[in-house]
Amino acid sequence: MGGKARHRRRESWTTDDDFLDDDEQFAARYGDVRRSSSGNVLHHTSDTTNRNRRAARKADKGDPSERSRSKARNSGSKANRAARRLEFVGSVTAMDAAIGRVLGLLDQYNIADNTLVIFFSDNGGGGASDNTPLRGGKGQMFEGGLRVPCIIRWPGRVPAGKTSDAFLTTLEILPTLLQASDVKPPQDIIFDGFDMLPVLQGKAPSTRNAMFWQRRNDVGARVGDWKWVDSSRGSGLFNLKTDVGEKQDLSATHPGKLVELKQHFAHWKKQMDAAEPRGPFRDF
Q1: Residue 101: helix, strand or coil by DSSP?
Q2: pTM score, whole prediction
């Protein structure tokens, strides 16, 4: 989708003892859990993140010892990679605990059956994450930068404990939420996605057959199982059905398919150039 939602400054976040129980042990272990005054967004800051911010401020102020430690953290040493991995795992653990509390509150207030929860990443893992067997990571056109896990919970409406390999994207989220909320979309708006609940319920196959990406000069196109990438990190034509790791470039053996995907991308680009309004996303 075209952009990310911007959260308000941290100073505007307020605690609500009626919504979250006073749990000093939890806060000491996992950080400060706060919510917006509207009660619809959870903000969680882990102790690890706070330590990193304090260290960064010290380095900016010229603290020699912190500048030295910061340089070590940014090095490619084995010890540094292990430290970054530990921080990453700690952040995931803290996030998991915070989300667990939110889900618990939905049960506590008996609104879980009437609440659709969608959890996913906005991009592939970067830094200390491990995207194996996918190639690449955050900011790249390869599957490691684009393919992300998505967990959906809606008791009684979405089957629990099931896994779907259907071709779905974040473009499907808005139409899905509108349908789930019985809200009619504006008639003059063309949506790029569709209601994916029937797919998740096993009632219908996904109608998604293509997806296109562009980030600065890097581009990517997927049509069916075929994927074309042209980027600063590498290029090629891949069949994701047999090569999800995008290891074997099939450009030379399937030149016709390469031309086909490039044509699909050009058509999509023409559509996007003609679409208005695009506002700040025009120059992405």
Answers
A1: helix
A2: 0.71
